[in-house]
Specification:
By secondary structure, this protein is of the alpha/beta class. It is built from 11 helices and 6 strands. It has a 6-stranded mixed β-sheet with strand order 2-1-3-6-4-5, sandwiched between helices. The chain binds zinc ion (ZN).
Length: about 280
């Protein structure tokens, strides 16, 4: 009886320990995910393989710079406890669709694309960061804040643009342009290992600060989603024209519908369109 009761108590105690253990493991897991935000970072080194990046005749290959910064970022993030996935980890070509597919296979991840800029004008320079979805803005703002703040280059701002890799990804996605390789000063920086390490550390700081830095940033240093216009990524000139055309003649909407049965009507419309210029 006494032995039985002791065994019961022992069982209860071990059960309690087991339960507490499960609880604390779950709690730690949740804490490492930071209140629902991701700890996996998919790093996308721009270009690669036959795709050098940049513009024709560019001396410093963009693909080499992006890969090196990406690999440095991988080490910094891994040291900081992040799980890191690379869309490429060597000089190979990966299609944009392939990059997006990798990113989208980690539903709680963050997607960071590393690029360097180029321009025909040698004087063009600076850091710019792109995002597309609203959920990506905090990450974009934070990364931009740190990279632009840590770089000697000018701040070209956070911009919204529908790049394929930003548009097709279902997770927060940011593309950072770490300076112009066609700018002699910025190219010289980019070719320095210590500077590429600095870039990696600043990007990592942005990843880490995505939830704390942004709220202040969006109201001060970086424009909010509302004030950043969507820069066109497809030729919308024709759409815009017909849109304007329609609004000007909304009263003739019924007439237009009959166009196919009345060729004379469309002729009149065409004539007046010409007059408009
Ligand atoms: Zn690029």
């Amino acid at each position: 009886m006494l032995i039985n009761s002791y065994r019961h108590r022992l069982f209860a105690a071990s059960l309690l320990i087991a339960l507490l253990g499960t609880f604390s493991t779950a709690q730690a897991k949740r804490a490492s995910q930071g209140s629902g935000s991701a700890t996996t970072v998919v790093i996308d080194a721009g270009h690669g393989g036959y795709d050098r990046g940049g513009i024709p005749g560019q001396r410093v290959a963009e693909k080499d710079m992006t890969l090196d910064v990406a690999q440095r970022l991988k080490r910094v993030l891994a040291a900081g406890g992040y799980r890191v996935v690379m869309t490429r980890d060597s000089d190979v070509f990966v299609s944009l669709g392939g990059r997006v597919a990798i990113a989208n296979s980690y539903p709680n991840a963050l997607f960071v694309c590393i690029h360097f800029n180029s321009a025909k004008r040698m004087g063009a320079g600076g850091i710019e960061t792109y995002f597309y979805s609203r959920e990506s803005l905090p990450l974009a703002s934070a990364i931009h804040y740190y990279v632009a703040g840590g770089a000697p280059s000018s701040n070209r701002g956070v911009r919204r643009r529908g790049y394929y890799v930003l548009r097709k990804t279902n997770i927060p996605a940011v593309l950072v342009e770490c300076g112009f390789l066609t700018n002699p000063t910025e190219a010289a920086y980019a070719q320095t290992a210590s500077y590429r390490q600095k870039l990696a550390e600043e990007i990592a700081a942005g990843v880490g600060g995505r939830n704390s830095v942004t709220s202040a940033l969006t109201t001060t240093r970086v424009a909010t989603g509302e004030t950043i216009p969507l820069q066109p990524y497809i030729d919308q000139t024709k759409v815009a024209k017909s849109e304007r055309h329609r609004s000007k003649r909304s009263h003739k909407k019924s007439a237009r519908k009959k166009r196919s049965s009345k060729p004379a009507e469309s002729k009149t419309k065409a004539a007046s369109k010409d007059q408009e210029g």
